[in-house]
Specification:
4 domains, alpha/beta, Rossmann fold, elongated
Length: about 625
């Protein structure tokens, strides 16, 4: 028996192979010649390695043929390569002749064979798999302008006569094939038996997301597509047009939270993520939440769950998936390899918002530095994956940075930006020294993002600072003078808003900006009294102030947007936070007590007496 003969000559170690085979080299050569087997030698040319197949090819890959080619005979590879470029008549999934050739080659090789066929009927790629499945490591280019289907159908053999597998259906939905066709073979004879066809479900809320036809015997009718692809694409186009009419943003996103935290905590995190997305002009199509015991090291959650998520995103015509949890570089790479959708996390979304809002020289440099530090460990070889992270949402700021830039160039850029920011820090120190010489008290407005700090600054100083109902509408610090009736002046500074779990790189990049707070004589902590998580926001800001060692500076708590809360809520907050001030930045009259408190605290009486007499 040839197999047992050569399998017996496979010692487990190279030393064992040399010891066992060396005396038998002449006999092996005679057997080789008689069986017409190929023998090649290892690196030291002393001991032959025995195999019934050719050694791995060292030349260029065969055009149009890919997959599991190891172990195939030259004649089999030649027959497979001849399938590339074949033409199938319009209106057929596959021609009977080519289907029979595929079955013959599958039976002979013991492997599944797949053809990727264009809408025009040309075989664009031949893929060889294992006995059970096919791994698609590469795909031909998609049709230009197609946003619904790829313009390719996959026709492949099933050696055991089984129908379409779950992997087949996942590939159909994830890769947006025109159709997935399985040629079911008789496991004994290797002849074609039946054909199974599946197409994408055009219903955006359809469950399951595919339509599977019952297996049918191989006949001209069962191999006919019958114009179904054109009708399907027309339905998908109508569904996409309807979805686009309902949205106004640049991107359409699905938000995802995967966490061991309670579902209520996930709801709060997703609500904040939704606000961040809206601030980045992203339309939120829906949210997906999953509570898990522990994170999956490579995909955050199970691979099957990720596939279901990606399929759902394609169903609702999402262009972007945003994870609430920060993704590690490996997780980004693994998930991006499974889809052509953009995949980002909360950190990257915040970086994008900062890039939009940065207008000053300092701000632009700080954002670019933070983005490069974030992207540096995420540079990997598969360019299509990272390119989905560096364009549009999540990729704004360092416009020339693309995957082709190697790590060395990125590090050089980081070093250059750091040096420029150090120079700007010296300039800021000079400005602070001049302010100290002017002996003007400094009051800094701090608080959670989007609580109305800029509106408050505008009302108090009669300025026209940009005001938007979006997170991080103010990024660059804004300084204005506030004049009191008795010709007294203070410097009022509006700073970037705080947020839960501010990305570490971003916090480090903006540390110089936050250092401006250290020169404040008084910090006014502004919070949104109408926000359902108002007290939690207060705790988070106080935690950040402690982390930045700013809690020793005198602080005044100010509840803004009090026109939106009922009187009983205001009384409850006043009891819980004695000494707090209640205002509405839209009502100038409500700001009079605040002005008296600021003037008295900085120039006259103790703050406690003024708050007690003027906070209501």
């Amino acid at each position: 028996d040839r197999s047992s003969l050569f399998d017996s000559l496979r010692p487990s170690s190279s030393l064992g192979r040399e010891r066992v085979l060396k005396p038998f080299i002449p006999a092996i050569d005679r057997i080789r010649r008689s069986l017409r087997l190929r023998v090649w030698y290892n690196e030291n040319n002393r001991v032959p390695a025995v195999s019934r197949v050719s050694p791995p090819a060292k030349g260029p890959p065969i055009s149009g043929l890919t997959g599991n080619l190891t172990g195939l005979k030259a004649s089999q590879i030649k027959s497979l390569s001849r399938l590339h470029g074949r033409r199938i008549s319009p209106g057929l999934w596959i021609s009977p002749e080519i289907a029979r050739q595929m079955a013959l080659l599958s039976h002979e090789t013991g492997r599944q064979i797949a053809l990727l066929i264009t809408r025009e009927g040309t075989v664009a790629l031949v893929v060889v798999g294992t006995a059970r499945d096919i791994f698609l490591s590469e795909l031909p280019p998609s049709r230009s302008g197609s946003r619904s289907l790829r313009g390719l159908r996959m026709v492949h053999t099933h050696l055991q006569g089984e129908g379409l597998s779950q992997d087949d259906l996942n590939d159909l939905a994830l890769l947006r094939f025109d159709a997935m066709v399985a040629l079911q073979m008789n496991r004994d004879s290797g002849l074609l038996d039946r054909v199974s066809v599946a197409t994408i479900n055009p219903d955006p809320v359809g469950d399951p997301p595919w339509i599977v036809e019952a297996p049918r015997p191989i006949t001209p009718e069962s191999l006919s597509s019958g114009g179904r692809i054109e009708a399907l694409e027309e339905e998908l186009s109508r569904s996409l047009s309807a979805a686009m009419k309902k949205t106004t943003g640049q991107e359409r996103a699905l938000l995802v939270s995967v966490s061991p935290d309670a579902l209520s905590d996930q709801e709060d995190a997703l609500a904040e993520l939704s606000e961040l997305a809206r601030s980045a002009d992203v339309d939120v199509l829906g949210v997906v939440r999953q509570r898990i015991a522990r994170y999956h090291p490579t995909t955050l959650m199970s691979v099957d769950r990720i596939k279901s998520l990606l399929i759902h995103a394609l169903q609702v015509h999402a262009t972007l998936i945003i994870f609430e949890q920060e993704l590690s570089p490996n997780q980004v790479r693994k998930i991006a390899e499974m889809t052509e959708l953009k995949v980002i996390d909360r950190t990257q979304l915040i970086l994008d918002i900062f890039a939009r809002r940065a207008h000053s020289r300092d701000g632009k440099l700080q954002v670019e530095l933070a983005q490069l530090k974030y992207l540096l460990p995420r540079l990997f070889e598969r360019s299509t994956a990272l390119s989905r992270l560096t364009g549009g949402i999540g990729g704004r700021g360092p416009g020339e940075t693309r995957l082709e830039e190697d790590r060395r160039r990125v590090r050089d850029r980081i070093a250059s930006l750091s040096a420029r920011l150090r120079h700007l820090e010296v300039e800021r120190s000079g400005r602070k020294s001049r302010r100290r010489e002017a002996a003007l008290p400094v009051v800094s407005l701090v608080g959670y993002t989007n609580v109305g700090k800029s509106t408050l600054l505008n009302r108090l100083t009669h300025s026209a600072v940009l005001v938007e109902d979006k997170m991080f509408a103010t990024l660059d610090p804004t300084t204005r003078r506030l004049r009191f009736p008795r010709e007294r002046e203070i410097i009022l500074t509006d700073t970037v808003g705080f947020i839960r779990d501010l990305p570490a790189d971003l916090r480090r990049a903006f540390m110089a900006t936050f250092d401006e707070l250290r020169d404040a004589d008084l910090i006014v902590h502004v919070t949104d009294a109408s926000h359902p998580q108002c007290e939690l926001m207060i705790e988070r800001v106080e935690t950040i102030l402690r982390e930045m060692e700013l809690h020793r500076i005198p602080t005044l708590l100010l509840f803004n947007k009090c026109d939106r809360i009922p009187p009983e809520t205001r009384r409850m907050l006043a009891l819980r936070y004695p000494g707090a001030v209640f205002v509405s930045a839209l009502d100038p009259e409500s700001l009079r007590p605040l002005e008296r408190i600021l003037e008295g605290r900085l120039f006259e009486k103790p703050l406690e007496s003024l708050v007690a007499g003027g906070s209501d």
